[in-house]
Specification:
Shape: globular
Distance between the termini: 8 Å
Structural class: alpha+beta
Mean pLDDT: 95
Length: 109
């Protein structure tokens, strides 16, 4: 299992963002996933990180699942760098998400 360096976002947060973008409330799990993917894409485009990040499902050390906007991975097959990027690469996303720290490492779920 790969580890990813990035920022966590919750499903509820992504769904709310999707509703704010004009999506209707999801009727199925597939609808919810589509809304979350669209919200993530919009967020990553808005902050300028879309072309060098990936959205991955991760599990925290406490066993909770989140979506991770990943900047790096310890698995070179993921097509991401293997180390945390410089701050100018993630600063806009960090500010939008109101995070205080640089991207952290999390295990793939």
């Amino acid at each position: 299992m790969a580890k990813y360096c990035g920022y966590l976002v919750g499903e509820k947060w992504l769904l709310q963002r999707g509703l704010e973008l004009g999506h209707e409330a999801p009727k199925t799990q597939r609808d919810a996933l589509d809304i979350m993917l669209d919200a993530s894409r919009d967020l990553r485009l808005q902050t300028g990180v879309y072309f060098y990040t990936k959205l991955r499902r991760v599990k925290t050390p406490k066993g909770k699942y989140f979506w991770c906007i990943a900047f790096a991975s310890d698995d070179p097959c993921q097509g991401l760098p293997t180390s945390r990027p410089p701050e100018e690469k993630y600063k806009a996303l960090k500010e939008l998400l109101q995070k205080e720290v640089p991207p952290l490492w999390f295990r793939e779920s």
